[in-house]
Amino acid sequence: MRCAVQIELSEEERVVWEKRVRARRSTTRDALRAGIVLCAAAGHTNKEISTKLAVKEHTVAKLRTRFVPQGMEGLREQGGRGRERLYPAEKVEAIVEATLH
Q: Is the pTM above the cut of 0.85?
């Protein structure tokens, strides 16, 4: 069985994360991620956090793993996994424009 990555926060960091959870201007996604960090720092398991916050256990584990080496930056949205565009947006726009006119 693998152990969850431990997260330790200073008192100042904890205050910042608690503000993110309660802030009206935080997106739902940011508030959820802040909640995961706070629960992990409090010593809860991935399963307990996933149950409490109604997310998949894999999501909790992934955010924990990204947070430790990267901090707040690790919780930002990562680039998509999809296929790269075959043609640049300018070329697609030029083709559409030529087709319509």
A: no
